Amino acid sequence: MPGNHESAGRRRSARRRKGNEHLQSILVECAWAAVRHHGYLKSLYHRRVMKWGGYRSATAKKKAIVVVAHAMIVIVWHILATGKPYHELGTDYFTRRLDPERETRRLIAKLEALGHTVTLQPAA
Q: What is the C-alpha separation between 36 and 42, in angstroms, rounded?
């Protein structure tokens, strides 16, 4: 959750910082439009919604949109500061960053916790 309430290494729940209300509403509208198109921002939205309660939770969706709006303003700032065009990271940005072996171990542990016996065979 966006916030700035940290002391002695412990993060506490906090509201986001105040900003330009007009810019905020425009960014949120743009974020809603952005999450309807395939790309990095849609995958970021999906990850955050699932983290905070899924698509049935209105609160999760609203919090996730604030995260996307923040990501958009950061992107705009970098474009203006560097003068370089935006480079789309892609829908698979988060899955590409996963370590395949670590993900395999995680999925095996999950299946075993559900009571399944897992044996791995190399793919042909």
A: 7
Q: Tell me which residue has tokens 């075993």.
A: 112
What number is the average pLDDT over the span 7-36?
86
Task: Give the whole-angstrom CA distance, residue 49 versus residue 62.
Answer: 9
**What is the Cα–Cα distance from 30 to 22, expressed in whole angstroms?**
12
The pTM score is 0.74
Instruction: Taking residues 31-38, report their average pLDDT.
Output: 97
Buried b (16+ CB within 10 A) or exposed e, 73-96: eeeeeeeeeeeeeeeeeebeeeee
CA distances from 47 to 13, 50, 58, 116 (A): 20, 5, 15, 27
The pair of three-digit structure tokens given for residue 61, joined into one six-digit string: 């969706």
Mutual orientation of helices 40-51 and 58-82 as an angle, nearest 10°?
140
Q: What are phi and psi of 66, to 5 degrees?
A: -65, -40
Strand partners, 7: 10
pLDDT band at 11 (very low <50, low <70, confident <90, very high): confident
